[in-house]
Structures are given as structure tokens and as C-alpha cells.
């Protein structure tokens, strides 16, 4: 059984493991106040061309999302997000558990549109009973989205403009930021993300690390007291230096994006081969998550040898499923997969 | 500079690192549904002679505390704890952030006494306005305590009896459980802890792992739906299997307690040597944390070569400080430390 | 200007005021432990044929909703409601502020359907990642609904059956329960509501009282410790006896339903007259809230002499608006309103 | 049985009832947007010589406290208060239920001292692990305190100075503000309170109204979006105008302070008579709450004819109890009480 079910089935890239081993006996300061975290933060600030950014390291994505959102919002505010946002659908109400409503807008292949944000805010204040509804207090997006799609520079610029117009901090969940930036149709860069978003994460867990998300807070107003928030929500690991070590390794010699490119390339090999076979896709993804649609009978055959994740039934006889590719995916396994699917669908 | 400031300054024991490396390329199910977590849980259940326990793995201690306490309590309930409890003093109000008041009782060298719990509960219900005060809903203790002291079997039995009499779940924070069980004056065992507490943790982070706390839920009523709670609070790591791998390693060949014994032994060498030199201690600790009291002038000298943590001023000229010993502490460093202190205090 | 904008624009019915005056100098126990609350609760229990019900009095509807829902749900659970539910749309995220997600289902003229609840619950547990989504923990409906429609005995019976099958407490927000029960097309009674719902309110504020909602907790399991919850959320008024006095008055000589019948009758006079004039309605309401659709030009004319509330634009030239009728609405004002509208639409 | 147990056992002063009756048929805007609230707010602003203050009306004291404190604090912050503060002891953890820790300091006869606030803040930031503790985010006091004592102008000025130095908003719970300002030893005025506190309440419930607390927000930064907060916490009553009507009446012709003076005068008659009889008191209160200490045997006798509240046991044979005086207390009842006590203690 070869698993394409997700991009978090394997440990860490060998360079990351080597770094952890190399520093294993070393004594470091606790709670992220160590030199590794310091250096990793410096590298990230340089990469983002954002010398004033605050950089923290948190163990997981849901943790990062809930800590950021709860820190930014006032009690009466909600977070605008797409109806397929992870925070809206798959975090067991983590945002609500901090007291805030996730206010959803339509997603377009997972993406939020600036125009919808503009309309929501305008209509909110136009209502006579606006104080009886949560005030929109920030905007959350993910890049890549839950559906593997990416934001273009134009789209992100437009969102950012609307957000700043209405003083809504823009938070970009970058659990798969590497896969997004490495995508062939992406014209975004770390610098551009740091310029257009007010807070964002650079995901490690799904991109070569054992665990850890780098949280980059660009807006100085949002940087204040942030370590209190991390501690309060349980994300301030005593051995924070281990995340520093991992991100130092990932950010050395462009490893982070190299691994992302590897995954995206294999994903596109898969996508293009299947397209050539006439297999339809749920969305047009250019990153490491692909959502082909198969007849149930074919899925049954594929499922004997390969792991994938059920996404949604598209009709009585067909379903869209997710195949994920990662830094650890092997070329030959993709070759085999493509060939096997060709056989099953023939 | 040799650091005795805490027990989380180094990575993981070599056996733990070896296990992580050995399984690095392997594909595992996500979110703790993998075989490593399954096996680690089995070992822990056996160790605790508690086949019905639910075992989960969470990344950190504050995370575990807040998830457990918020899952157990009803909204109108608070958690009884000692006034030196970590949840009361050093988690940035994490418990309150989940909506619950930490109700403190006096700590006796960090320990809670059954009699005080009994009295609190009795007086609560005896009050005419009891509904105007948070209802005591559970009891939290730590073993070892924040001051390095341990509960005896008799003390824990008595606490457990009072808790069960009043239907208060008893949660034991075992971030340093190994150091407690390995202490020369401890007559507790994993089995006894599992028999007397309703929920407890077996700390990994401070006891040989990179990160991770095993959460053991003994009481079946408290096991229900627990994975929802972990997810909601941000503790359900996608690569949960990495904690399974680490705990498998720690629980193999008694490694966990062997490492604890090593640290405790060095701590007692330090304690006894200093006592022989006439150095007073803040409390009588038998575990890996020691709190000697020194003149400020001596502390200045020690501080040039050794890291320690300030605990509290005891008078204008003296302060109690913390020296920690861990699985990674070297015999020769302790020897050197003792000799240097002898010189400074001579 | 005669105001039909809402059903809370006037003080209290004269019988309620008379009762308050009559008892004004009397000394009563605080926090609802007085004889008036006791007697009002007894009358309500008798009216509902539910001798085991717990009855409390809270100052407002949002207060009642958030207190009940937060008391019932576990942290990882959400409340199922219709997409037009007041708790979903118009309480500034009050439910989320207590930590819980409002999980919405389609509303059919404001009503929730049993079948949709069944489907939601079934699909939740059928999902592989169900623990990553809030668990459905209870169901909330309102009768009358926000759109003035009512549940039939058959509909409520079916909802109750599905809720009990899945152990989901059913909470009925009865801010306008009198108007619902008094409706010509309603076959529900207080007894039936108490039989089919697990918790419900009998609204006072909009139905003849100065303020106050009676909260009836039928399910003994949900009664436990409830006064703690009311106190914690700020709803335990020290002068609770004033609500007892008001509800005693409202429940004497069928006053409550008599006032409701008065309002419903005037609402139907209005509805039927407008229908006869060819005016369309947003929904078919049989209670005190009516939602006619008018051309904007007509609304402008009506607005000069009458107060009403904007509900929604139905097309570029038309809008649905709300006219409310209450215990205090005068027959002659309705006559005048109907005649004036006839003139404007002629 | 004549009840001195509390100051909320009776309805409202006749002028308040008359005003409610006079406006009973009148139609008003909902949710406090009416003319009565507007006028009452204007009067209060004038009384406080604070034209820029925002004034809201909330139904109860706990409601006001939790709404204000939750609106002001950031998630990682706690509220500094005295260890006898109502929010710390008698609101069922209402503050914690909004996510914030109540950080207590010693109370001196119920009062907080500026010096202790200064020390707490200084020590917080001096700690190496300050981010592991809730940040002090505001200060709460009550005037009169829970023990009936009052702040002097000097004391409040000093507290205010320390709060402003550390940018901590100062909230004064004025549930019994009238009784405090009317006290013979008080040199505070509404103007001074408004000058020195950033937010405060003027209690109605215990001072002549049926229900309602006026919330005065002096600091413009804290005024923003406040109606959202009131709505979210359940305190935005649809018939808010009823509180406007009541406060209009209370603020007319100095009624509010006249009623307070009446109660304080009777309380001091009681206090001075008992002192003359040699009865000791728990604290030296100059307001409407008095805490004499009696032998248990005497309390038993008094309790046959008079209601009072148990406060605390002072030794095995004695207890301090509370006698409250209010706008509704009759001169002759106090005379009788004093005479009866003289007999019992003779």
C-alpha cells in the first residue's frame, strides 16, 4: 500500500533530521528564546524582505489559527473566511471555542474574492441592526487553499486593498505556502505575501519538518504581547528551539521551496497524465493536492494498492478523491500509480 | 556555561532519536490513528495495569492541562488546585481562557491536602449563596510538584478518597511523573497512579523526548469524545505518530524510569553535598529539581559558570534558586558544580 | 406616527402594572427565591401539565438563549438551528461567545425540518473526520419563528422524535410562544410543547410584561445546577420577584393567551385585508408578525405615518417589510392602517 | 418579620413607578435608542460634568461587570481587584467565563490600595517569565465596597494616578454608588468619579429602581462598539426605554441621592446606637450596609423577628452579620430594631 492520502504521513526530510541530531546534546534556552529560533526568524525576515516582522514558531496549524485569530479579534468580532476554509469546516469549532464566529463567504475553488469581502462589510454597516450581528474584524484565507488552488498576485493584492480600506487585518494560513509559491501558475513570493498580508504562517509540518509552523506577524500593531497569547493557548513549547533548528534547516539552501517544487512537479505529472487519460478533476489545482473524479468501481480498484482520501460524491456513481504529493513522494511510486490508474480506467 | 536552569534544554535521548530516524521514511496514518501510537498506548496501559484506559498524545503540558480541564468541567465549575500549581501561576490564564476559574487552596511544599479539599467542598455547599460561587468540579495536582516534592501513596489515596466521595475527577499532571516515581521516598507506581487518579499525564518533553505528553484517561466517563476536544484546542497533531514513536522508545526496556532515576540520583548527590556544606533548601525535594538558598554574593559567583533559575527572594541578602537535573545531565558536570559551590561558599 | 415596527415598543399591560404596584412596598427574598416566583412557576407547571419542570425567570431572550445553550452543550458541541434563527443571525455571536458554533440548516419559512436534522447527524458520524467537526449537541427552534410562522403538532412531534433518537436536547425559543399557540392554524398547546421539547421559554417581554422570559426545563437531567448558570451569565436578577409578579399576573385568567389572541386577530385582519387588495406576502404567517411586500414608492408613503421594519429587498423596486401587532395594538389603528394602505396602493 | 437582609427586597420608589405608569401606553424605539434613554443619559452626563461620556443601561450588576471587563481586556489580560470584590467572590466565575482571570490583591476593609497595584504591575514586568502569567489589563473597584466602606477622594485619586501611569483602565462598580456618595465621610462626587474612573456604573436596582444600572464610559477609546458587547452578553433589552424612564425619574430633583441619604442616615442611626450599646462591628462602614458582631445566642433571638444576612464567623461563639438599609426602610422599623437588640444584648 502506497499512501497518497495526505502530505503528513512521513517524518522529516533527512536534512531536518540531521540538524536535530547534530544539536541533540546542546543546551538551549527554553520557550523559543534560543539562538536557533533567533537565526531561523532572521532568515525568514530576510526571505520576506521584512526586517520588522515578528516571527514565532508554533507546533501545529489549528493551534496557529486559533491563537492568531483570538489575539486579533475583539470579543464582538468575527473572522471572514471562505465556506471551505479549514477554520470553518475542520477544526472542531476551534475559533468559536475562543469566542468568535467564523463568518463565511462563498469560496471560488476555495478562494475568497475581494468583492465579496467589500460587499459583506458594506452591507453590515448599512443594516439598521448592525450591532446585533458580529462585526467583521479580520479576513482569513489559505494559500494554497484546501482545494490546492492558489491566489495570484492580482487576487491577493485586491484582497489586501479591500482589507486595508476597511482596517481588517488579513491573515494568510500558509500551512502549504511552499507548495503554493512553488506552483507553476503562482506569481507570488515570500516578499509579496509579507507585503500584502498582515500575518501569515509558513507551514513546516506538511513541508519537510517533523512539526512546526512559522508565524510571521508583519503588522507591528499585531505583534504586541504575542508570546502571552501563544502561552495561553498552549502553543509555547518549552523546547521551542527544536522548531528553530528545523526551520533553520528548511530555510538553508532553498530547501523549503526545493521540496515544494518536487511535490508540485509530481502532482502535475499525475494531473497531466490523468487528464490525458480523460479523467476529470474537481478543481484545477496546480499544487501538491489533486482531486480527480473517478467512477466508484475504479476507486475500489485503486484503493487496493493506494491510499487516497474521500472528498465528495459528485453523483451516484462517481466521487472526487484527494491524492497528495509531498517532499517524500517517490518518482517511481507516481509512475506506478499513473500506470495502474490507466489500467483501471481503460 | 553549563545549564542547570531547567530540564528541557536539550533535545531527546539517543534511543528516541534513533527511533525517529528509523521510521522517518515510513508512511503512517495521520492524527494519532497509527500503529506507533497504538503500540505506545498498549504499553502504557499494561504498565499502568489499566486495560480500559484511553491514551492520547499531546504536544505540550499546558495544552494537555487546558484540554483535560476544559473537557471535564461544566461551565459553572472551577478546578481546585494548590496555590503553587502551574495552572494557577504560570500558564497565562490558560484555564480561565477556557472559561473556568482555578480555585486555589494552600499548598504544602507544593502539595494539596485531602482535608483542605474536603473542607472547601463542605463549606461551598453549606453557604446560602453557593450558587453565586463557582462549583468545585474537579481537583488538579502535579506529581512531582512545582517544588520537586512528591505525593506518598497514603497522601494520594486520601486525596482520591475525598475526590471520589464528592464525585470530583482527580487529574494528576505528570509532566515530571518519572522523576516522582523514581524518587527514593516515593512508594507510588504507575499502577497506583492509574488506580487513584481519574486522568493523568506521563510527561515526555522533560523526560527524554523531543516533545509530547501521554494523556491517560482512566475513568470511562471522561473518555467519551476526547479526540474532539484535543482537535478543538489545537493539540491533535497531524503527525501524531511521531509522539507514538517517541513513547514506544521511552517505554522500552524501562528507559523512561532509568532516565528519571539518573536525574534524581544526580539531584540527590547535589542536595546531599550542599547540605553537608550547610546550604539550606527551600523545600525538601527528592526529585530532579532542587531549591538551595544562597547569599546573593554567592549566586553571583555561581552564575558566571552555571545556569540556574531564580525562584524567590528569602530575605534581603538571600534567594532560593532552582537547579534542574535531567536525563542529559552529566555526572562530571555535577561533580564540578558541587566543588565550585563549595569553593564559593567556603 | 403609529408604530408597527415591533412588539416591544410599549411598557406592560395594565394588569401587570397593577400587580407590580400592588406589591411595591412588600419585602421579598432575593434572586428568585421568593413566593411570587414560586407561585408563577407552579402555575406554569400546571399549565404545561408538567409537575417536574424547573422554572426560572430571566430578563431577556438573548440572555435566556445563551444561558440555556451554554449550559447544555459540551465544549466540542454545536447547536443545530435554522439559517434564519435569531441565535444564528441577530445575537452578535452570543452563542459563539460562549464557545459554541451555531450549525445551521436550511429554514423553510423559518422552520427547521426533522429530516434535515436526521441527515446532518447521520452524515456527521459517517464522515471519516467527524472528530474534526463540532459534534451536533442539541437543536434549537423558535415558535413562532422569526418569520411569524408556527410549528404544527405533527412537525414538532417529528422533530422531537429525531432529537430523542439521537439524544439531542430540543430547545424551543418561545419569545413569541403565546402568539404561536394562539394562532388559528396552531394545534399546539403548552402541554404539547412541554411534552415534545426538553427546554423552552415562555416570552414575557413581547407579550404583555415589562421584561422577563420564563424558562421551563422539562428534562430533569438539564435542570441540575441551573441557577449557577443563570448567575454566571448575568441573568440572576437580585429582584427576581418582580418577574414572578409579572408572570403571576400574565398567567391569571388566561391573560397571556388572551393578549396573544388579540394581537394575532389584528394581524390577520391586516393580512386578509391586504391580500384582498392583492398585496403579496413574503411568507404565510398566522401570528402577530406580518411581512407584506410593497413597491418602494408605496413604502415611502406608508412610512410617513406608520412605523415598520425593513426585512429584505425582493427585487429592485420592491421590499418585504415587517408589521407587528401586540397586546397594546389598537383596533382603530389597524383600521386606519388598512385604509391608508388601500389608498396608497390604489 | 422585618427584613434587613439586603437592599433589594422591595420594588421601586413611588416616583419611579409613577413614571413607568405614566409612559406605559407610549410607543418607544427599541434597544435603548429611545428618547427616555437619551434624556436620562444627558442628565447623567450633566451630573458628571462629562459631556463626552457614553451612557448605556443594563439590567443587572453582574451583567454590567462581565460586559465591561470582557470588552476592555485583551485575551491574555486579567483584571486586578480586591480579594473581597464581588467579581472575585460572588459572580459564579462570570469573569472567568468570558476568558479572563481575576487577579486579586489584598482588600483593606474592602478597598484596594494604589500601592498594591503599583507593586503588582512592577513585579509582573520584572519577572523573567512574565509572559507565562496573565498581564494586568485593568483595575476594578467598587464604591461603596462589599463591606460598605467608601473610597476617599485622595484614595481614588491615587488609584487613578497609578492606573493611568500603567495605562490600566479603572472600572468602578457603582451598584451602591449613591450610598457611597451620600456617606458622611465621602468627599467624592459624581464629577470626581467621572474624572478619576474610566468607566463606572450608577446602580439603580439597589437604589430605588425596579432594575437597571447606568453604565458611564468616560474614556472615548473604551466607548467604541460598546452596543455590540452589550448585545452579545445578553444585556441589550428590547424595552431598554423602561430603564431610561426609571433613571429619568431617579435623576430628577436629586431623588437618587435623597434616597441614598435616607438609607445611610438610618444605617448610621443603627450603627451609632449599637456602638453605644457596646456592640462591635466588623468594619467601620458609613453607608447602608452595617456589619455588627453578635454572640450566636443573640443572633438567634434577633432572627425571630428580623431578617439579616450571615457574613462570617468571628469566633466559636460570635458572628458578623449584615443589616441593610434602603430607600424603602422605615424609620420606625429601625427604632424597633435598635430597641429589640438593646433588650437582647442587655
Give an overview in words.
Four copies of one chain form a homotetramer. By secondary structure, chain A is α/β, with parallel strands linked by helices. Chain A has two domains: 2-6 and 255-345, Aspartate Aminotransferase, domain 1; 14-254, Aspartate Aminotransferase, domain 2. The first copy, chain A, contains 15 helices and 13 strands. Chain A has helices at residues 14-22, 35-47, 61-72, 86-89, 94-97, 114-126, 153-165, 177-181, 190-196, 220-223, 226-232, 241-250, 255-276, 296-305, 331-345; strands at 2-3, 54-58, 77-82, 102-105, 135-142, 170-173, 199-203, 213-217, 289-290, 293-295, 306-307, 309-315, 318-324. In chain A, a hairpin with a 2-residue loop joins strand 12 and strand 13 (318-324). In chain A, helix 2 packs parallel to helix 12 and helix 13 runs parallel beside helix 15. The radius of gyration of chain A is 20 Å and the shape is globular. The two termini of chain A are 22 Å apart. Chains A and B meet through strand 1, helix 1, helix 3 and helix 11 of A and strand 1, helix 1, helix 3 and helix 11 of B.
Amino acid at each position: 500500500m502506497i499512501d497518497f492520502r495526505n502530505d503528513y504521513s512521513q517524518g522529516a526530510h533527512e536534512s531536518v533530521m540531521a540538524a536535530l541530531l547534530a544539536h541533540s546534546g546542546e543546551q538551549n534556552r527554553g520557550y523559543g528564546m534560543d539562538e536557533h529560533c533567533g537565526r531561523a526568524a532572521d532568515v525568514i525576515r530576510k526571505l520576506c524582505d521584512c526586517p520588522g516582522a515578528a516571527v514565532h514558531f508554533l507546533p501545529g496549524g489549528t493551534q496557529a489559527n486559533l491563537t492568531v485569530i483570538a489575539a486579533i479579534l475583539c470579543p464582538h468580532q468575527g473572522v471572514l473566511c471562505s465556506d471551505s476554509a479549514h477554520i470553518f469546516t475542520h477544526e472542531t469549532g476551534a475559533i468559536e471555542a475562543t469566542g468568535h464566529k467564523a463568518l463565511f463567504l462563498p469560496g471560488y475553488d476555495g478562494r475568497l474574492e475581494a468583492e465579496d469581502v467589500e460587499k459583506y462589510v458594506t452591507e453590515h454597516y448599512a443594516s439598521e441592526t448592525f450591532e446585533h450581528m458580529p462585526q467583521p474584524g479580520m479576513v482569513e484565507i489559505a494559500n494554497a487553499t484546501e482545494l490546492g488552488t492558489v491566489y495570484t498576485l492580482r487576487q491577493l493584492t485586491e484582497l489586501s486593498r479591500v482589507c486595508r480600506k476597511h482596517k481588517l487585518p488579513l491573515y494568510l494560513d500558509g500551512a502549504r505556502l511552499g507548495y503554493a509559491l512553488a506552483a507553476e501558475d503562482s506569481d507570488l513570493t515570500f516578499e509579496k505575501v509579507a507585503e500584502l498580508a498582515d500575518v501569515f504562517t509558513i507551514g513546516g509540518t506538511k513541508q519537510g519538518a517533523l512539526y512546526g509552523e512559522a508565524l510571521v506577524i508583519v503588522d507591528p500593531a499585531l505583534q504586541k504581547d504575542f508570546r502571552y497569547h501563544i502561552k495561553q493557548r498552549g502553543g509555547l513549547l518549552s523546547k521551542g528551539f527544536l522548531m528553530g533548528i528545523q526551520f533553520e534547516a528548511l530555510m538553508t539552501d532553498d530547501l523549503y521551496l526545493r521540496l515544494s517544487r518536487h511535490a508540485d512537479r509530481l502532482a502535475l505529472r499525475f494531473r497531466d497524465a490523468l487528464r490525458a487519460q480523460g479523467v476529470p478533476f474537481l478543481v484545477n489545482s496546480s499544487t501538491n493536492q489533486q482531486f480527480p473524479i473517478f467512477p466508484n468501481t475504479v476507486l475500489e480498484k485503486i484503493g487496493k494498492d493506494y491510499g487516497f482520501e474521500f472528498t465528495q460524491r459528485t453523483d451516484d456513481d462517481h466521487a472526487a478523491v484527494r491524492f497528495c504529493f509531498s517532499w517524500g513522494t517517490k518518482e517511481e511510486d507516481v509512475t506506478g500509480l499513473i500506470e495502474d490508474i490507466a489500467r483501471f480506467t481503460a
